């Protein structure tokens, strides 16, 4: 399939989930590459565009030159068809999702509607609008698909064993992308991305929760934080590095699926220690299970407590990705290390809390 024949020099991207962490970095990346960037945002009762507000010139009119927002929702097929027919994107990045694993146990049906059926709706909207022979499609797949891992490290051939309603919904999305690629010859790729973080990470994901709370402790605005499972291990990279990999996947000759990861794994406990290390505190652990606490070395003040409400009915204990295929095919490697990631997030949250202690 040749997309350059049909698209000429047009570079028009449509991003669902543009207001999220990845949507904001991807928008910046594509605008820098000269793309016209369109994004779908949901109607909300208060502003939900804080991560992208710097990108459009008329924030209240939602009108810009190369950056435009459209109201829509992954649960509404007709709006997806209308938007795609109107803008005729050459690349579509499906980042929209109810993306919180723990919340998906409470909102399981909604998570399936958005993350699974929403992906199907978008693929069908592309076909209905007649651009399926020319547009390229990126699906935000996830290392959560591996769940109860069958092998270490995980690569594109590792079997899946999802452990949450979120992961089950994303499993459907993964396979419907593969199916539409095979059935209709669509240029559709799954990026199986391992956890990636940044100062723009949602406040309820564990890394950002830790850096925000440790920043508050540093400034005397709080004394401790509560967490769930400290022993799960994640392969954490920086979101800015990972959005480049999304784009690179769509620049290949043939559509394929790729794992994107750092190849390094750390426990939540190690992340906590690194964050406190950044403010010059050493944490020592005492007790076991729900009685465990993290104390500040020297003073003995309790800084970390365990709260069972943050445990999940089924946990993903260990993730470690192998992205050698991406390295081989398009020379992608992560630039930001774990230590640099923690430092950037800590510095940003300290600055944020200094500016606005209520943030
Ligand atoms: P975020 O949670 O930061 O962003 C999710 C985006 O989806 C937001 O823009 C949100 O809008 C939007 N959204 C949610 N529900 C709907 C809906 N019904 N209709 C339209 N838009 C909706 O996620 P990230 O940026 O971190 O992740 C991007 C994608 O990558 C997600 O699909 C996620 O599941 C996946 N992923 C993320 C990884 C990570 O480590 N960050 C790793 C692997 C995969 P609003 O702002 O209004 O809430
Ligand atoms: P994850 O990210 O579930 O991997 O999904 P999250 O940061 O929520 O959890 C990581 C690990 O930390 C443990 N944990 C806690 N998690 C949260 N959120 N809050 C806590 O207080 C806490 N204490 C311990 C969790 O149990 C878990 O083991 C993210 C999302 O971005 C998904 O959308 C994406 O697909 C995957 O990463 C890859």
TrEMBL record:
Q: What is this protein called?
A: GDP-mannose 4,6-dehydratase
Cofactor(s) this protein cannot do without: NADP(+)
The annotated pathway is:
Nucleotide-sugar biosynthesis; GDP-L-fucose biosynthesis via de novo pathway; GDP-L-fucose from GDP-alpha-D-mannose: step 1/2
Class of this enzyme:
lyase
Matching entries from InterPro entries are given as: GDP_Man_deHydtase, NAD(P)-bd_dom, NAD(P)-bd_dom_sf
- Name any Gene Ontology BP term: 'de novo' GDP-L-fucose biosynthetic process
- Similarity annotation: Belongs to the NAD(P)-dependent epimerase/dehydratase family. GDP-mannose 4,6-dehydratase subfamily.
Entry keywords, A to Z: Lyase
Domain (NAD(P)-binding) ranges: 14-345
Top-rank lineage group of the source organism:
Eukaryota
- Gene3D superfamilies assigned: NAD(P)-binding Rossmann-like Domain (3.40.50.720), UDP-galactose 4-epimerase, domain 1 (3.90.25.10)
Species of the source: Phaedon cochleariae
Its EC number is: 4.2.1.47
SUPFAM superfamilies linked to this entry = NAD(P)-binding Rossmann-fold domains
What would be an example GO MF term here?
Answer: GDP-mannose 4,6-dehydratase activity
């Amino acid at each position: 399939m040749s997309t350059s024949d049909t698209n000429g020099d047009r570079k028009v991207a449509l991003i669902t989930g543009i207001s999220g962490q990845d949507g904001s970095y991807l928008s910046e990346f594509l605008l820098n590459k000269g793309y016209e960037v369109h994004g779908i945002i949901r109607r909300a009762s208060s502003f939900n565009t804080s991560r992208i507000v710097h990108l459009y010139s008329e924030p209240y009119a939602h009108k810009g030159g190369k950056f435009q927002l459209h109201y829509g929702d992954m649960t509404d097929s007709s709006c997806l068809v209308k938007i795609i027919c109107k803008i005729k994107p050459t690349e579509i990045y499906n980042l929209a999702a109810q993306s919180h694993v723990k919340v998906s146990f409470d909102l399981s049906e909604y998570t399936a509607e958005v993350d699974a059926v929403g992906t199907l709706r978008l693929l069908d909207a592309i076909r209905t609008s007649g651009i399926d022979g020319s547009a390229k499609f990126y699906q935000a797949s996830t290392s959560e698909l591996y769940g109860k891992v069958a092998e270490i490290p995980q690569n594109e051939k590792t079997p899946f064993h999802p452990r949450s309603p979120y992961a089950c919904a994303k499993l459907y999305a993964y396979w419907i992308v593969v199916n539409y690629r095979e059935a209709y010859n669509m240029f559709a790729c799954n990026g199986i991305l391992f956890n990636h973080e940044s100062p723009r990470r949602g406040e309820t994901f564990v890394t950002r929760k830790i850096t925000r709370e440790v920043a508050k402790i540093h400034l005397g605005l709080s004394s401790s934080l509560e967490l769930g499972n400290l022993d799960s291990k994640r392969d954490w990279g920086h979101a800015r590095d990972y959005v480049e990999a999304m784009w690179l996947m769509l620049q290949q000759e043939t559509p394929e699926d790729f794992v994107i990861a750092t190849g390094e794994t750390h426990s939540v406990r190690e992340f906590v220690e690194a964050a406190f290390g950044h403010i010059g505190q050493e944490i020592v652990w005492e007790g076991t299970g729900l009685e465990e606490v993290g104390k500040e070395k020297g003073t003995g003040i309790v800084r970390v407590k365990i709260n069972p409400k943050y445990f999940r009915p089924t946990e993903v204990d260990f993730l470690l990705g192998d992205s050698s295929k991406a390295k081989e095919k398009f020379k992608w490697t992560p630039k930001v290390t774990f230590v640099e990631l923690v430092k950037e997030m800590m510095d940003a949250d300290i600055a944020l809390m200094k500016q606005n202690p209520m943030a």
